[in-house]
């Protein structure tokens, strides 16, 4: 489990505060609680556009699974499956940390596959506890079991697939992690009182049948997010139109041992706090996994209130910045290695040559998107002379090949659930990978909110540090201690020029 340090978090909402947020449809609280309406048996997001129910008819829940256990069904209008996920990072006690980390794992579709019993056993084993202890802690903290959380995630994902795509019912059941169509049908009828076809008829399918709405908690600076990605754009792999707030790229997804190749596009709609996801037909069977990766790429589940409670005094004006993630941890790591001690533009040039030489061709509706990023296997076996001909120096050649071999063999996990401390140590044990590269990978690929590349020269300059490189690094590390566990966000805000020293920091 990732280590976390004590930090202020927003004051827990009481029911009166939640009702006020419901009355005002305050999007800042979207996903932080759900409202069950006793007169209708429906539970909604705080942003639901229906007429606000009477206070006496409202019951409030922290998690969708709690609402469903209490007998409420998801609203067909506000659609709870579209709400941002909860991303709490605090160190209240061991039991709370266990619940938080287990919940993040259960949000990942990779943990939905297989029979329920083995799935729970695998989850408990990954967390280093028994499944009985995990169940006991969940019941004590949330009033629901981890299996009930898993079922809710599966059902909400299936509801989204049925509403927003024309995937066959069997494919929907499989994509949502159900072991059989019979169990899927039974679960829908038991929980929602509907058959798959009835649920599908209840949805409004967009014209192209493939547009998926993903929500976020405001504020989110979409142009800034896209500018960051545009500076690192890889021709053939991704394309960006900042003015139109559009992003699209190719992708290879491995879900349950099956590879899916295709493309997806994003269209941001800031006025309604959502981004529309368009996916190729070839990626639709893996849509839950794709959605989860897109949420990480755009950092849609960040809670600006929690982050500003720690960083606001030192970074006024930076609340809307997000930490761009990655849809492929290996790709991000290779690009980080190529970016060592060179400009962002130079790193992009090298990565583009690597894609042209080793990337697999793919057909898409956009002729400018025609390649996928090379696989770990292809780069692990790359000839050094071939890498050298691209302008990649010998030290980086060794680092890329060692990184590719570690990922291809399964020795190194660059997914967002990997232990950041152990993974950064493993990265630095590879030839040619130092602390800066490891921390940058942790920040974006591992989705660690507390990454801090203390040796970064741009940070030193923005933080107005002086002295020898070692002195600046020590000062940089010391200065950032009050910003834990949100130092990754402090990095982005510092790079963007939002740092304001307080008298204490002068």
Structure, described:
The protein is an alpha+beta fold and 506 residues long. It folds into four domains: 15-76, DNA Methylphosphotriester Repair Domain, CATH 3.40.10.10; 94-201, Arc Repressor Mutant, subunit A (Orthogonal Bundle), CATH 1.10.10.60; 211-301, DNA-3-methyladenine glycosylase AlkA, N-terminal domain (TATA-Binding Protein), CATH 3.30.310.20; 326-446, Orthogonal Bundle (Endonuclease III, domain 1). The chain is 44% helix and 10% strand. The chain has helices at 15-24, 64-69, 94-107, 116-127, 131-142, 146-164, 169-175, 181-192, 196-201, 222-231, 287-298, 304-311, 329-338, 344-358, 376-380, 384-388, 394-408, 420-428, 435-444, 457-462, 469-479, 487-495, and strands spanning 34-37, 42-44, 58-61, 73-74, 211-215, 238-241, 246-255, 258-269, 274-279. The chain has a five-stranded antiparallel beta sheet, with helices on one face. Helix 3 (94-107) packs across helix 5 and helix 6 packs antiparallel against helix 7 (169-175). The longest helix has 19 residues, at 146-164. 46% of the residues are buried.
Summarize it.
By secondary structure, this protein is an alpha+beta fold.
Strand order of the largest sheet: 5-9-8-7-6
**Shape label:** globular
Residue ranges: pLDDT <50 for 5 or more in a row? 1-10, 205-209
The CATH superfamily of the largest domain is known as Hypothetical protein, domain 2
The largest pleated sheet is described as:
5 strands, antiparallel
CATH topology of the largest domain: Endonuclease III, domain 1
* Structural class category: alpha+beta
Kindly estimate the percentage of residues that lie in beta strands according to DSSP: 5-15%
CATH class of the largest domain: Mainly Alpha
| Radius of gyration of CA atoms, rounded to a whole number | 23 Å
CATH architecture of the largest domain: Orthogonal Bundle
Helix content: 40-55%
Integer average pLDDT: 91
Number of structural units classed as domains: 4
The number of distinct helices, counting runs of at least 4 residues, comes to 22
